[in-house]
């Protein structure tokens, strides 16, 4: 069998910091590790097999949905670019 240790911390108060809420998760395994940091919008994965990657799945989803179609339009990166293009189009047409 395997043995694991978990540490959970929660608090209603926190000292002044760079963000209002620190939301982090760490996993260490025998073939790699994962670090999730919601304050910095992403996560880091390091494995013996694939090496290191700094991922941000909330910005844009680069993998297709189960039907093989583009599925990245719900990420904040896609939506912010779309909002910018819509705003420019509205300005150019005189709407705003």
End-to-end distance, in Å? 64 Å
SSE ordering = EEEEH
* Shape annotation: flat
State the strand order across the main sheet.
1-2-3-4
Low-confidence stretches: none
Evaluate the radius of gyration.
19 Å
Task: Tell me about the largest β-sheet.
Answer: 4 strands, antiparallel
Mean pLDDT score: 81
Helical run tally: 1
Strand content: 15-25%
Helix percent reads: 10-25%
Which structural class do the helices and strands define?
alpha+beta
Tally the beta strands: 4
Please explain how this structure is put together.
The chain has 96 residues and is of the alpha+beta class. The chain contains 1 helix and 4 strands, in the order E-E-E-E-H. It has one helix at residues 76-93; strands at residues 24-29, 32-37, 42-47, 51-55. A 4-stranded antiparallel beta sheet has the order 1-2-3-4, with no helix packed on it. Strand 3 (42-47) and strand 4 (51-55) form a beta hairpin. The termini are far apart.
């Amino acid at each position: 069998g395997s043995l694991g240790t978990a540490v959970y911390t929660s608090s209603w108060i926190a000292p002044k910091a760079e963000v209002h809420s620190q939301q982090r998760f760490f996993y260490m395994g025998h073939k790699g590790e994962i670090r999730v940091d919601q304050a910095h919008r992403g996560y880091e994965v390091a494995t013996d097999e694939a090496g290191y990657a700094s991922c941000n799945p909330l910005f844009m989803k680069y993998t297709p949905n189960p039907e093989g179609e583009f599925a990245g339009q719900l990420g904040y990166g896609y939506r912010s670019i779309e909002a910018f293009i819509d705003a420019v189009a509205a300005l150019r047409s005189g709407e705003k």
